[in-house]
Amino acid sequence: MTTRTQHATQSATSTVGSTCPPHLISASQPTVPVPAGVTVRLDAGGTIWRLRSLVAMGHGASRIARAMRLRPAVVRELIRGEAKTVTPELRDLACQLWDAWWDKRPPERTQAERRAASRARHRAERHGWCTPLGLDEDELDEPGYRPYSLYRFATGTGIAADFRPAASWAIRKEIA
Fold this sequence. Notes:
Elements: H1 3-9, H2 22-27, E1 42-43, H3 45-56, H4 61-68, H5 72-80, E2 85-86, H6 88-101, E3 104-105, H7 111-127, E4 158-159, H8 172-175
Parallel strand pairs: 3-4
Antiparallel strand pairs: 1-2
Helix pairs in contact: 3-5, 3-6, 3-7, 4-5
């Protein structure tokens, strides 16, 4: 049973651990010494598909960027698939956001929010990006992964709350 399935079957007040596989979280801490001045980079595929699946739920690039405290251009580059690698910190931050929002729609209280959500969903539909349930968590972070599922409208289980990262991201310059 996947983490999302477990989450869906548990009460709404319970919490579930990160959906990033443990072997990938440990991968962000290299076991081989890294020379000073060298930045560890990871394949961006899993991060890209996580963010695209949030777009399919209606979360636009600007909303995702605000939540992750990144420049919108960085998030747009990821969503477009232009980035080939990411830092472990960025991958972990994307996992945190995905864990928080995978089954949630964005707020649509105002006309601007409704328009942004609609544009995001239409973009995902146009590109065939699936919602989070269409991703295979066991394969997601493997280089070259492509989901079998295509876009399907999803209502989610509620409205996404504002996102607060678990760690201090004062090192934003090092993330992207």
